[in-house]
Write a structure and sequence with these properties.
Elements: H1 6-22, H2 42-56, H3 69-81
Helix pairs in contact: 1-2, 1-3
């Protein structure tokens, strides 16, 4: 039996969450690409952070830089590893 890589699974979940929330095709939301590069503004980023916090039952502090999908996934991995 093949187990899925937890990071890959988390990455896909976050991509799908952002895609649904902001009506952007998942393939356009590459990990290192900045959220602003997809035409998002600060309000969009705050919406995404709030949705991720709710979905994963975490709090992302204001001082944590969130500029990309990779940033979100990295923070989620660190917070769930504790």
């Amino acid at each position: 039996m093949h187990m899925a890589d937890p990071r890959t699974t988390l990455y896909k979940e976050v991509i799908n969450l952002v895609s649904r929330l902001k009506a952007i095709a998942p393939h356009k939301l590459s990990g290192p690409k900045g959220l602003w590069e997809n035409g998002m503004d600060i309000v969009d980023v705050v919406d995404i952070i709030l949705a991720v916090e709710k979905r994963y039952n975490v709090v992302i502090p204001d001082e944590v830089p969130v500029y990309s999908i990779d940033d979100l996934v990295n923070y989620l991995q660190l917070s769930t590893a504790r």
